[in-house]
UniProtKB/TrEMBL annotation:
Lineage, uppermost ranks: Eukaryota, Fungi, Dikarya, Ascomycota, Pezizomycotina
Record keywords, A-Z: Copper, Copper transport, Ion transport, Membrane, Transmembrane, Transmembrane helix, Transport
Organism whose genome encodes this protein: Thermothielavioides terrestris
Protein name per Swiss-Prot or TrEMBL: Copper transport protein
Keyword Transport included in the entry's annotation: yes
Membrane topology summary: Multi-pass membrane protein
Family the UniProt entry places it in: Belongs to the copper transporter (Ctr) (TC 1.A.56) family. SLC31A subfamily.
Amino acid sequence: MDHSHHAMDHGDMGGGSHMCSMNMLFTWDTTNLCIVFRQWHITSNLGLVASLVAVVAICAGYEALREGIRRYEAALSRRVDTVPRQSREQVSRRAHVVKAVLYGFQTFYAFMIMLIFMTYNGWVMIAVSVGAGLGYLMFGGRTPATKETACH
């Protein structure tokens, strides 16, 4: 049964040339490459280069976020230690709520990077790795390089 007519991009009226290509196998092909969203559709070499730079920045930003959270937690720990004993539990509970929100945001960010990587496009995969490396170089001075490679 032929279902090819269902795959047509409705804005193209038959050509299908503006449709996002979703590969489930590794590829270097960037024809009709979309990154995560249909709106992030790469249609030119300039668009590809700009997108790869954006991916590098996004991944470096993740490392900046992780470092910011580490610094926040260290400052928070020092603050809790200076609070009078009778107020410590209340301050600790509020701090835990803030840390939970930050953890949720960090996890969301990590999964979005995972989705970017899962385009299975070699150029995008390299950009993710370069961004992670640059981010570590710029922001990970106090983090061991042997950190776990879990999604978050």
